[in-house]
Design goal:
190 residues, alpha+beta, Deoxyribonuclease I, Chain A, three-stranded mixed sheet, 4 helices
Length: 190
């Protein structure tokens, strides 16, 4: 969260002699979003006065995620304020180039596997004896049996799917059919 908060305070503006109670409210709001005031890498003004009667000040602030060590400070660029009265702030975010492939098990919607899964879960559920749920131990036993049955049916009917940056959750068999039809005809109608 970053902005011109228009609050002068000796906490962030070291040359300002006073403490502002309004800053407490700002800090409370930032904390409610799990943000904390970012450390400055250079202590310079963020707002530059165009009159001699007013001094330059630090009123532009940046709040970053609490406890995030890789992203815990920002920089003020006084040389880039040019004709503006505020200097830009920046934070460096390092991004690693990685291709993360995730693997999961899935059952396609409206597929034969989905129908089998639902049918087999229904059968497995009906087979579970729930006549004696007189205590917590018996209830836990039934719940564990139900969980085990569903997991077994899931493993039997689901297939291994590799998720990549090219995967599309909306793609289905109808899309395959339409694409193949277009590739065959090369007609814009298809």
């Amino acid at each position: 969260m970053t902005s011109d908060f228009n609050i002068r305070n000796n906490i962030w503006g070291l040359s300002f002699p006073h403490y502002s109670i309004i800053s407490d409210d700002l800090m409370t709001i930032a904390d409610s979003f799990n943000l904390e005031l970012s450390f400055l890498t250079n202590h310079v003004s963020t707002r530059y006065s165009d009159s001699n009667s007013r001094s330059n000040s630090v009123i532009n602030l940046m709040f970053l995620q609490s406890g995030l060590t890789e992203l815990n400070n920002h920089q003020i660029h006084p040389d880039l304020h040019l004709s503006l009265d505020h200097a830009p702030l920046s934070v460096t975010i390092t991004i690693e180039h990685k291709n993360i492939n995730e693997v999961k098990y899935s059952i396609a919607k409206n597929s034969k596997e989905e129908a089998n899964f639902i049918k087999e879960v229904s059968i497995a559920t009906k087979k579970i004896d729930i006549s004696d749920l007189s205590n917590i131990s018996k209830l836990e036993e039934v719940v564990n049996l139900l969980t085990s049955s569903i997991n077994s049916v899931w493993n039997k009917n689901s297939k291994h799917v590799k998720i990549t940056k090219h995967s599309k959750s909306w793609w289905n068999k109808e899309c395959d059919h339409t694409l193949n039809n277009y590739r065959t005809t090369r007609s814009l109608e298809d």
